[in-house]
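Model it.
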Amino acid sequence: MALLDLHFAPQLAEIEARLAKGADPAEAFRGLDDDLFALISGKDYAGHDAVKAALPDYPDNHWISNCTGNHTLHDAVQEASLFWRLAKEAYAAHGRRGPLATATVADYGAGWGRITRFCPKDAGRVVAIEPNETFHEIWRQTRVPGELVASDFLSKKKLPVSDIDLLICFSILTHASDALAKNIAKRWAEIVAPGGVVLFTVRPGTYLDLDGGEIDRLSPADKAAARSAYEAGRIAYWPYPECPSDWGVTVMPMAYLEQLFGRHFEIIGPRYFLQNHTQLPIVMVRRQGGWFGS
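Modeled.
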């Protein structure tokens, strides 16, 4: 007998009953344990067709691997679920905008919706902000819930969203140039409501001392220059030659983040993310007043 049927049959039966009565999928799954929801979302089990039909699909393995550092589907789901759990903890601890169940959540740089798909069961409204049209199409084909908002690649243009209570951003500022990071800071100041919470990731300073992965793109001289910049409180950035400008390998020290965000956000500090030691989550709260121009 399958694990779901052996140990979690009552929870599945309740979800199926809600769906049979015409409940919106987000409402049908509301309140479900995060780990169990992550397991169910992978759809790697027999039966329960109504539950599977209510959940979004995943893109093919090419996109899962290329966009997550060669993760398998299981690892990609696990990382996304744990990051969303961390975001909920940050909101519960620092949010000043009411319960998450009535809050508006934005996933900035949502990609194909790896993390966004976990938000609707807990949030009141979900917005996914993404510039890549290929990801837009994957989003639609896989039926990711939420409102898809197209942005421009350099984040220069104002967005048609505002009053965001919780903004999440996974592994975007780990690649952004100084110019792109400054644009992103402006957009966040415009769309996050006073008292709203932001959770985003940067590379930890120890990333510059690692071997393997993207850091191996840098020559010894490049690494030395990056370490010098980081130690001086400046952004350490090396562009990808094969990609559009303003996208590459990026490590941001806390002093740089204070300069980038400090006027409009209170930086609560970093959190350790056990699932991925190359991602350092940073928690911020939008200050009252103050606004960036375009």
